[in-house]
Amino acid sequence: MASDDELNGTERLVLLVLMAQAEETSNTRLAELGPKLDAKPREKLLRLKLIETDFSRKPMVHSLTDKGWAEAARELKGGPPPGAKPQAKGFYTILAGLQRYLNREDLRPSDVFRVDEPAPEITEIETPTQTVAAPVGTNIETLVRTAYADLAPKKGAWVTIRDIRAALPDVPKPKLDRALGEMYRIDDVSLIAEENQKALKDSVKSAAITIAGQPVHLIAIEG
């Protein structure tokens, strides 16, 4: 950036907070989280196309543009600005540690800073599960999809892996685990862990498979 476009500490912090929020943030909320965005720095960030502001809403709301995301991401590895106070230096030391983690895991800031998704709704099958026969030579992925279609109330609903196992008693556990692990890479298949561990029944826990070192309890298929 040219010298006139160089961001000051407040403007840098605004970008970082908006990145952490990962969604539209009101002027009032922004001030609660740290930096107060007054007219002059707001006009500068708008002129540089780093933020978008919806003035039609009261209070006004701000969000990062793609350029703003890129600029905020550079702050993670840019180091403290000249003349930074000790608190700011410590803050940027933490950001540098976060950047090392992103590099190590091959992640982008948008992989970390995002809005939490609602907790998945688990479809519990309390009645005896209808089993799916496994004819010789049948692809296990096909059997899983058939079992899921019988169990799920609709496409994309979450079903426990426990119930998939119960529906496929003739499929050996190692083969089913391997097939589910391979399906994890398919676009229309989602496999996740249940975040509320206290709500898990022991049978759901014991039926989980392990992906990337983490237990996975739920499956959803959109196709």
Description:
This protein is of the alpha+beta class and 223 residues long. It has two domains: 3-112, Orthogonal Bundle (Arc Repressor Mutant, subunit A); 122-221, no CATH class. It has ten helices and nine strands. It has a four-stranded mixed beta sheet. It has a three-stranded antiparallel beta sheet with strand order 1-3-2. Strand 2 (51-54) and strand 3 form a beta hairpin. Helix 4 packs across helix 5. It is elongated, with a radius of gyration of 24 Å.
What's this entry about, in short?
This protein has ten helices and nine strands.
Proportion of beta-strand residues: 5-15%
Number of domains: 2
What's the N-to-C terminus distance?
Answer: 47 Å
* The CATH C-level class name of the largest domain: Mainly Alpha
CATH architecture of the largest domain: Orthogonal Bundle
Please mark out the parts with pLDDT under 50 across 5 or more consecutive residues, or reply none. 125-129, 132-137
The number of distinct β-strands equals 9
Radius of gyration: 24 Å
Structural class: alpha+beta
| Strands side by side in the biggest sheet | 4-5-9-6
Give the name of the CATH superfamily of the largest domain.
Answer: Winged helix-like DNA-binding domain superfamily/Winged helix DNA-binding domain
Question: Which descriptor suits the 3D outline?
Answer: elongated
Task: Report the major sheet.
Answer: 4 strands, mixed
Number of helices: 10
- The percent range for helix content is 40-55%
Q: Fill in the CATH topology of the largest domain.
A: Arc Repressor Mutant, subunit A
Please write the string of helix (H) and strand (E) elements: HEHHEEHHHEHEHHEHEEE
What's the rounded overall pLDDT mean? 84
